[in-house]
Design goal:
By secondary structure, the chain is mainly beta. Helices cover about 5% and strands about 45% of the residues. It has three helices and 32 strands. The strands form eight sheets. The chain has a four-stranded antiparallel beta sheet with strand order 1-32-31-30, with no helix packed on it. A hairpin with a 2-residue loop joins strand 3 and strand 4. The termini are far apart.
Length: about 425
Protein backbone atom coordinates (compact mmCIF):
# COMPACT_ATOMS: atom_id res chain seq x y z
CA UNK A 1 0.00 0.00 0.00
CA UNK A 2 1.42 3.45 -0.89
CA UNK A 3 2.49 5.51 2.11
CA UNK A 4 -0.23 8.17 1.64
CA UNK A 5 -2.98 5.56 1.35
CA UNK A 6 -1.66 3.76 4.43
CA UNK A 7 -1.62 7.01 6.40
CA UNK A 8 -5.21 7.79 5.43
CA UNK A 9 -6.31 4.28 6.29
CA UNK A 10 -4.72 4.44 9.73
CA UNK A 11 -6.10 7.92 10.40
CA UNK A 12 -9.58 6.74 9.44
CA UNK A 13 -9.67 3.99 12.06
CA UNK A 14 -12.75 4.91 14.09
CA UNK A 15 -11.87 3.58 17.53
CA UNK A 16 -9.33 1.64 19.53
CA UNK A 17 -11.44 -1.45 20.12
CA UNK A 18 -11.75 -5.19 19.68
CA UNK A 19 -13.63 -6.54 16.68
CA UNK A 20 -16.34 -8.05 18.86
CA UNK A 21 -17.01 -4.87 20.89
CA UNK A 22 -19.82 -2.38 20.28
CA UNK A 23 -18.17 0.76 21.66
CA UNK A 24 -20.31 3.57 20.29
CA UNK A 25 -23.58 4.64 18.68
CA UNK A 26 -24.45 2.13 15.90
CA UNK A 27 -21.35 0.02 16.48
CA UNK A 28 -17.66 0.16 15.56
CA UNK A 29 -18.07 2.07 12.28
CA UNK A 30 -21.42 3.81 13.04
CA UNK A 31 -23.08 1.75 10.30
CA UNK A 32 -25.12 -0.48 12.65
CA UNK A 33 -23.32 -3.51 11.16
CA UNK A 34 -22.02 -6.36 13.29
CA UNK A 35 -18.41 -6.66 12.04
CA UNK A 36 -17.58 -9.46 9.62
CA UNK A 37 -16.30 -12.58 11.35
CA UNK A 38 -18.32 -12.07 14.54
CA UNK A 39 -20.73 -14.95 15.16
CA UNK A 40 -24.40 -13.99 14.78
CA UNK A 41 -27.66 -15.92 15.21
CA UNK A 42 -29.31 -17.33 12.09
CA UNK A 43 -32.75 -17.64 13.68
CA UNK A 44 -34.72 -16.14 16.53
CA UNK A 45 -37.14 -18.28 18.50
CA UNK A 46 -36.66 -16.81 21.98
CA UNK A 47 -34.32 -14.71 24.09
CA UNK A 48 -32.52 -15.88 27.22
CA UNK A 49 -31.98 -13.22 29.88
CA UNK A 50 -28.36 -13.56 31.01
CA UNK A 51 -28.75 -10.68 33.45
CA UNK A 52 -31.00 -7.73 34.14
CA UNK A 53 -30.20 -4.71 36.31
CA UNK A 54 -32.43 -1.79 37.35
CA UNK A 55 -31.82 1.56 35.67
CA UNK A 56 -33.24 5.06 35.89
CA UNK A 57 -34.96 6.82 33.04
CA UNK A 58 -33.03 7.62 29.87
CA UNK A 59 -32.94 7.32 26.10
CA UNK A 60 -29.16 6.88 25.76
CA UNK A 61 -28.26 3.48 24.33
CA UNK A 62 -25.81 1.07 26.03
CA UNK A 63 -22.39 0.33 24.53
CA UNK A 64 -19.92 -2.49 25.17
CA UNK A 65 -16.12 -2.39 25.28
CA UNK A 66 -13.33 -4.21 27.09
CA UNK A 67 -15.64 -6.50 29.04
CA UNK A 68 -17.79 -3.65 30.37
CA UNK A 69 -21.19 -2.21 29.49
CA UNK A 70 -21.42 1.58 29.69
CA UNK A 71 -24.73 3.43 29.91
CA UNK A 72 -26.30 6.64 31.21
CA UNK A 73 -29.46 7.09 33.25
CA UNK A 74 -31.23 9.46 35.61
CA UNK A 75 -30.29 9.07 39.28
CA UNK A 76 -32.04 11.60 41.50
CA UNK A 77 -31.43 14.99 39.86
CA UNK A 78 -28.35 13.92 37.92
CA UNK A 79 -27.46 12.34 34.61
CA UNK A 80 -25.17 9.50 35.69
CA UNK A 81 -22.62 7.41 33.83
CA UNK A 82 -22.33 3.72 34.76
CA UNK A 83 -19.91 0.90 33.99
CA UNK A 84 -20.96 -2.67 34.76
CA UNK A 85 -19.48 -6.07 33.99
CA UNK A 86 -20.61 -7.38 30.61
CA UNK A 87 -20.46 -10.90 32.01
CA UNK A 88 -22.84 -10.53 34.97
CA UNK A 89 -24.03 -6.91 35.19
CA UNK A 90 -22.23 -6.23 38.47
CA UNK A 91 -21.36 -2.59 39.19
CA UNK A 92 -17.84 -1.41 38.36
CA UNK A 93 -18.34 2.33 38.88
CA UNK A 94 -20.91 5.14 38.62
CA UNK A 95 -20.28 8.90 38.43
CA UNK A 96 -22.61 11.93 38.08
CA UNK A 97 -22.28 13.84 34.80
CA UNK A 98 -24.64 16.82 34.97
CA UNK A 99 -28.01 18.12 36.15
CA UNK A 100 -31.04 16.61 34.40
CA UNK A 101 -32.74 18.42 31.53
CA UNK A 102 -36.53 18.17 31.24
CA UNK A 103 -38.63 18.80 28.16
CA UNK A 104 -42.27 18.06 27.35
CA UNK A 105 -41.66 14.85 25.39
CA UNK A 106 -40.48 12.37 28.01
CA UNK A 107 -39.36 12.11 31.65
CA UNK A 108 -36.05 13.78 32.40
CA UNK A 109 -33.07 11.62 31.54
CA UNK A 110 -29.95 11.42 29.38
CA UNK A 111 -30.30 11.07 25.61
CA UNK A 112 -26.74 10.84 24.31
CA UNK A 113 -25.07 7.44 23.86
CA UNK A 114 -21.50 7.39 25.27
CA UNK A 115 -18.45 6.67 23.12
CA UNK A 116 -15.69 4.35 24.35
CA UNK A 117 -12.17 4.47 22.93
CA UNK A 118 -9.80 2.02 24.57
CA UNK A 119 -9.29 3.15 28.16
CA UNK A 120 -11.46 6.28 27.85
CA UNK A 121 -15.19 7.01 27.84
CA UNK A 122 -16.63 10.19 26.35
CA UNK A 123 -19.97 11.16 27.90
CA UNK A 124 -22.11 14.14 26.89
CA UNK A 125 -25.08 15.48 28.83
CA UNK A 126 -28.28 17.02 27.48
CA UNK A 127 -27.06 20.38 28.83
CA UNK A 128 -23.77 20.25 26.93
CA UNK A 129 -21.34 18.97 29.56
CA UNK A 130 -18.68 16.80 27.87
CA UNK A 131 -16.40 14.65 30.00
CA UNK A 132 -13.58 12.27 29.17
CA UNK A 133 -13.60 9.56 31.84
CA UNK A 134 -11.27 6.69 32.67
CA UNK A 135 -12.93 3.45 31.58
CA UNK A 136 -11.29 1.73 34.56
CA UNK A 137 -12.70 3.84 37.40
CA UNK A 138 -14.73 6.77 35.99
CA UNK A 139 -12.16 9.40 36.96
CA UNK A 140 -12.53 12.67 35.01
CA UNK A 141 -9.51 13.10 32.72
CA UNK A 142 -10.73 16.28 31.05
CA UNK A 143 -13.98 18.15 30.56
CA UNK A 144 -15.59 21.09 28.79
CA UNK A 145 -19.01 22.68 28.60
CA UNK A 146 -20.50 23.85 25.31
CA UNK A 147 -22.45 26.72 26.88
CA UNK A 148 -19.84 28.00 29.33
CA UNK A 149 -16.69 27.32 27.31
CA UNK A 150 -17.78 27.51 23.65
CA UNK A 151 -20.54 30.11 23.72
CA UNK A 152 -23.37 27.75 22.78
CA UNK A 153 -26.98 28.84 23.30
CA UNK A 154 -29.09 26.57 25.44
CA UNK A 155 -32.44 28.02 26.44
CA UNK A 156 -34.60 24.96 27.00
CA UNK A 157 -37.93 23.68 25.76
CA UNK A 158 -39.77 27.04 25.70
CA UNK A 159 -37.10 28.92 23.78
CA UNK A 160 -37.16 29.76 20.08
CA UNK A 161 -33.76 28.35 19.13
CA UNK A 162 -34.00 25.13 17.12
CA UNK A 163 -32.14 21.87 17.45
CA UNK A 164 -30.23 21.10 20.62
CA UNK A 165 -31.85 23.93 22.57
CA UNK A 166 -35.13 22.01 22.68
CA UNK A 167 -34.35 18.42 23.65
CA UNK A 168 -30.70 18.75 24.61
CA UNK A 169 -27.44 17.59 23.08
CA UNK A 170 -28.02 14.11 21.68
CA UNK A 171 -25.44 13.62 18.84
CA UNK A 172 -22.95 11.04 20.13
CA UNK A 173 -19.30 12.24 20.19
CA UNK A 174 -17.19 10.79 17.36
CA UNK A 175 -13.63 9.49 17.72
CA UNK A 176 -11.61 10.09 14.55
CA UNK A 177 -8.00 8.97 14.91
CA UNK A 178 -6.44 11.23 17.54
CA UNK A 179 -9.45 13.53 17.53
CA UNK A 180 -12.86 13.75 19.17
CA UNK A 181 -15.55 15.52 17.15
CA UNK A 182 -18.74 16.96 18.68
CA UNK A 183 -21.64 19.13 17.57
CA UNK A 184 -21.58 22.06 20.02
CA UNK A 185 -23.39 24.92 18.30
CA UNK A 186 -21.31 27.65 19.92
CA UNK A 187 -20.23 31.00 18.48
CA UNK A 188 -17.98 30.11 15.53
CA UNK A 189 -18.04 26.58 16.92
CA UNK A 190 -20.86 24.66 15.26
CA UNK A 191 -18.75 21.50 15.11
CA UNK A 192 -15.69 21.24 17.34
CA UNK A 193 -12.67 18.95 17.11
CA UNK A 194 -10.69 18.21 20.27
CA UNK A 195 -7.46 16.37 20.88
CA UNK A 196 -9.07 13.27 22.37
CA UNK A 197 -6.30 12.78 24.93
CA UNK A 198 -6.09 16.32 26.32
CA UNK A 199 -9.32 18.10 25.40
CA UNK A 200 -7.40 20.85 23.59
CA UNK A 201 -9.41 22.42 20.75
CA UNK A 202 -7.91 21.50 17.36
CA UNK A 203 -10.44 23.33 15.18
CA UNK A 204 -13.90 24.88 15.21
CA UNK A 205 -16.28 25.00 12.26
CA UNK A 206 -18.58 27.94 11.42
CA UNK A 207 -21.55 28.65 13.68
CA UNK A 208 -24.44 26.22 13.14
CA UNK A 209 -26.95 24.80 15.60
CA UNK A 210 -26.82 21.01 16.06
CA UNK A 211 -29.80 18.85 15.28
CA UNK A 212 -30.00 15.44 16.94
CA UNK A 213 -28.17 13.34 14.33
CA UNK A 214 -24.77 11.84 15.18
CA UNK A 215 -21.79 12.88 13.02
CA UNK A 216 -19.87 10.38 10.90
CA UNK A 217 -16.59 10.24 8.98
CA UNK A 218 -16.82 9.05 5.39
CA UNK A 219 -14.76 9.14 2.21
CA UNK A 220 -16.74 11.09 -0.39
CA UNK A 221 -15.43 12.15 -3.79
CA UNK A 222 -12.10 10.61 -2.77
CA UNK A 223 -11.76 12.75 0.37
CA UNK A 224 -12.26 11.57 3.98
CA UNK A 225 -14.43 14.14 5.74
CA UNK A 226 -16.78 14.75 8.65
CA UNK A 227 -20.46 14.67 7.70
CA UNK A 228 -23.06 16.25 10.00
CA UNK A 229 -26.83 16.56 9.69
CA UNK A 230 -27.28 19.85 11.55
CA UNK A 231 -30.47 21.77 12.30
CA UNK A 232 -29.98 23.95 9.21
CA UNK A 233 -28.78 21.30 6.78
CA UNK A 234 -26.33 18.61 5.74
CA UNK A 235 -22.68 19.62 5.80
CA UNK A 236 -19.29 18.17 4.83
CA UNK A 237 -16.27 19.40 6.81
CA UNK A 238 -12.53 19.03 6.25
CA UNK A 239 -11.19 16.66 8.91
CA UNK A 240 -7.90 18.48 9.36
CA UNK A 241 -9.05 22.13 9.48
CA UNK A 242 -12.79 22.25 10.12
CA UNK A 243 -13.34 24.15 6.85
CA UNK A 244 -16.76 23.73 5.28
CA UNK A 245 -16.46 21.75 2.05
CA UNK A 246 -20.12 21.73 1.05
CA UNK A 247 -23.56 22.46 2.46
CA UNK A 248 -27.12 21.53 1.48
CA UNK A 249 -29.63 23.68 3.42
CA UNK A 250 -32.55 21.79 4.99
CA UNK A 251 -34.74 23.17 7.75
CA UNK A 252 -37.60 21.81 9.84
CA UNK A 253 -39.59 23.07 12.79
CA UNK A 254 -37.41 22.92 15.93
CA UNK A 255 -34.47 21.70 13.82
CA UNK A 256 -35.61 18.11 14.22
CA UNK A 257 -33.05 16.26 12.13
CA UNK A 258 -32.34 12.94 13.83
CA UNK A 259 -31.20 10.26 11.38
CA UNK A 260 -27.51 9.42 11.20
CA UNK A 261 -26.31 10.00 7.61
CA UNK A 262 -25.58 6.94 5.50
CA UNK A 263 -23.16 7.01 2.58
CA UNK A 264 -23.07 4.99 -0.64
CA UNK A 265 -20.16 6.06 -2.81
CA UNK A 266 -20.57 9.82 -3.30
CA UNK A 267 -24.22 9.79 -2.29
CA UNK A 268 -25.15 10.95 1.22
CA UNK A 269 -28.63 9.99 2.44
CA UNK A 270 -30.57 11.59 5.29
CA UNK A 271 -34.22 11.90 6.26
CA UNK A 272 -36.53 13.77 8.61
CA UNK A 273 -40.25 14.11 9.15
CA UNK A 274 -40.71 17.37 7.20
CA UNK A 275 -38.04 17.40 4.48
CA UNK A 276 -38.57 13.73 3.55
CA UNK A 277 -35.93 11.28 2.41
CA UNK A 278 -33.11 13.13 0.66
CA UNK A 279 -30.22 11.78 -1.39
CA UNK A 280 -27.37 14.26 -1.91
CA UNK A 281 -24.79 13.77 -4.67
CA UNK A 282 -21.40 15.25 -3.75
CA UNK A 283 -18.74 15.97 -6.40
CA UNK A 284 -15.34 17.63 -6.50
CA UNK A 285 -13.66 19.28 -9.47
CA UNK A 286 -10.20 20.54 -8.65
CA UNK A 287 -10.64 22.40 -5.36
CA UNK A 288 -14.31 23.09 -5.94
CA UNK A 289 -16.99 21.10 -4.13
CA UNK A 290 -20.59 20.75 -5.22
CA UNK A 291 -23.52 19.07 -3.47
CA UNK A 292 -26.93 18.70 -5.10
CA UNK A 293 -30.10 16.90 -4.13
CA UNK A 294 -30.37 13.77 -6.27
CA UNK A 295 -33.87 12.99 -5.01
CA UNK A 296 -36.43 13.89 -2.36
CA UNK A 297 -39.07 11.31 -1.46
CA UNK A 298 -41.81 12.39 0.95
CA UNK A 299 -43.33 8.89 1.00
CA UNK A 300 -40.15 7.61 2.62
CA UNK A 301 -39.75 10.40 5.19
CA UNK A 302 -38.02 8.47 7.97
CA UNK A 303 -38.56 10.42 11.19
CA UNK A 304 -36.02 9.47 13.87
CA UNK A 305 -35.06 5.81 13.38
CA UNK A 306 -31.66 5.84 11.70
CA UNK A 307 -31.77 3.55 8.64
CA UNK A 308 -29.32 0.70 7.94
CA UNK A 309 -27.62 0.41 4.56
CA UNK A 310 -27.11 -3.10 3.18
CA UNK A 311 -25.59 -3.22 -0.29
CA UNK A 312 -27.61 -0.98 -2.60
CA UNK A 313 -30.65 -0.76 -0.31
CA UNK A 314 -31.44 0.51 3.15
CA UNK A 315 -34.10 -0.28 5.74
CA UNK A 316 -35.99 2.07 8.02
CA UNK A 317 -39.32 3.12 9.54
CA UNK A 318 -41.53 5.06 7.14
CA UNK A 319 -43.99 7.88 7.89
CA UNK A 320 -46.98 5.51 7.94
CA UNK A 321 -45.49 3.48 10.81
CA UNK A 322 -44.34 0.98 8.21
CA UNK A 323 -41.06 -0.83 7.80
CA UNK A 324 -39.60 0.07 4.40
CA UNK A 325 -36.80 -1.08 2.11
CA UNK A 326 -35.51 1.66 -0.20
CA UNK A 327 -33.23 1.60 -3.21
CA UNK A 328 -30.41 3.90 -2.12
CA UNK A 329 -29.45 5.32 -5.53
CA UNK A 330 -32.99 6.39 -6.47
CA UNK A 331 -35.02 6.66 -3.27
CA UNK A 332 -37.57 4.25 -4.73
CA UNK A 333 -39.39 2.13 -2.16
CA UNK A 334 -38.67 -1.54 -2.91
CA UNK A 335 -41.21 -2.84 -0.38
CA UNK A 336 -43.26 -1.71 2.58
CA UNK A 337 -44.47 -3.80 5.52
CA UNK A 338 -47.49 -1.81 6.59
CA UNK A 339 -48.46 -3.88 9.65
CA UNK A 340 -44.96 -4.33 11.04
CA UNK A 341 -45.88 -2.73 14.39
CA UNK A 342 -48.71 -5.22 14.87
CA UNK A 343 -51.13 -4.14 17.57
CA UNK A 344 -49.20 -0.94 18.33
CA UNK A 345 -50.71 1.76 16.15
CA UNK A 346 -48.84 4.61 17.84
CA UNK A 347 -45.34 3.16 17.37
CA UNK A 348 -42.91 5.00 15.14
CA UNK A 349 -39.38 3.94 16.14
CA UNK A 350 -37.13 0.91 15.78
CA UNK A 351 -33.42 0.44 16.46
CA UNK A 352 -31.81 -1.75 13.81
CA UNK A 353 -28.56 -3.63 13.35
CA UNK A 354 -27.32 -5.88 10.56
CA UNK A 355 -26.22 -9.27 11.89
CA UNK A 356 -24.86 -11.35 9.02
CA UNK A 357 -27.54 -11.62 6.34
CA UNK A 358 -30.35 -10.55 8.63
CA UNK A 359 -31.56 -7.45 10.42
CA UNK A 360 -32.30 -7.40 14.13
CA UNK A 361 -34.99 -4.77 14.69
CA UNK A 362 -35.83 -3.58 18.22
CA UNK A 363 -39.26 -1.97 18.16
CA UNK A 364 -40.19 0.76 20.60
CA UNK A 365 -42.50 -1.60 22.47
CA UNK A 366 -39.52 -3.87 23.14
CA UNK A 367 -39.99 -6.62 20.54
CA UNK A 368 -36.90 -7.94 18.79
CA UNK A 369 -37.70 -8.95 15.22
CA UNK A 370 -35.34 -10.77 12.87
CA UNK A 371 -35.97 -10.15 9.18
CA UNK A 372 -34.03 -11.04 6.06
CA UNK A 373 -32.04 -8.14 4.60
CA UNK A 374 -33.63 -8.87 1.25
CA UNK A 375 -34.75 -6.09 -1.13
CA UNK A 376 -37.02 -8.51 -3.01
CA UNK A 377 -39.61 -8.89 -0.25
CA UNK A 378 -40.26 -8.65 3.47
CA UNK A 379 -39.45 -11.96 5.15
CA UNK A 380 -39.73 -12.34 8.92
CA UNK A 381 -37.54 -15.03 10.50
CA UNK A 382 -38.45 -14.68 14.17
CA UNK A 383 -39.78 -12.42 16.90
CA UNK A 384 -39.34 -12.31 20.69
CA UNK A 385 -39.92 -9.87 23.54
CA UNK A 386 -36.66 -8.22 24.61
CA UNK A 387 -37.57 -5.36 26.95
CA UNK A 388 -40.16 -2.68 27.65
CA UNK A 389 -40.89 0.62 25.90
CA UNK A 390 -37.73 2.25 24.56
CA UNK A 391 -36.24 4.50 21.89
CA UNK A 392 -32.81 2.92 22.02
CA UNK A 393 -30.33 1.31 19.69
CA UNK A 394 -29.35 -2.27 20.66
CA UNK A 395 -25.69 -3.21 21.09
CA UNK A 396 -24.34 -6.61 19.97
CA UNK A 397 -21.10 -7.99 21.38
CA UNK A 398 -19.70 -11.47 21.95
CA UNK A 399 -22.90 -13.16 20.82
CA UNK A 400 -25.05 -11.19 23.25
CA UNK A 401 -27.53 -8.39 22.78
CA UNK A 402 -27.57 -5.45 25.19
CA UNK A 403 -30.72 -3.31 25.37
CA UNK A 404 -32.41 -0.95 27.78
CA UNK A 405 -35.79 0.53 28.58
CA UNK A 406 -36.96 3.08 31.14
CA UNK A 407 -36.53 0.64 34.04
CA UNK A 408 -33.64 -1.74 33.31
CA UNK A 409 -30.63 -2.74 31.24
CA UNK A 410 -30.67 -6.26 29.83
CA UNK A 411 -28.10 -8.75 28.54
CA UNK A 412 -29.79 -11.25 26.24
CA UNK A 413 -28.77 -14.30 24.24
CA UNK A 414 -30.76 -15.36 21.17
CA UNK A 415 -31.76 -19.01 21.51
CA UNK A 416 -30.42 -21.30 18.77
Amino acid sequence: MPARALLLALFALPLTTRADDWPQWRGPARTAHVPAGVAVPEKLTSLKTVWQIPAGNGLASPVVSGGKVFYLDAQGTKETVHAVSAADGKDVWSVPLDDLHKDSQSPAGPRCTPTVDGDRVYAQSCRGELQCLSAADGKVLWRTNYVKDLGATFIGEKGQAPGASRHGYTPAPLVDGDHLIVEAGGKDAGVVCFDKATGKVVWKSPTMMPGYAAPIVATIAGTPQVVCFMSDGLIGIDRATGKQLWLVPMKTGFGRHVTTPIVLGDLVIVASHQVGLVGVKVTKTGDEWKADKAYTVKEAAINFSSPVLVGQHFYGVGPQKNLICVEATTGKIAWSKDDFFAGNATRTHAGMILAGKNLLVLTDDGQLVMIAADPAAYREIGRAQACGTNWCQPAYANGRLYVRDAKAVYCLEPAQ
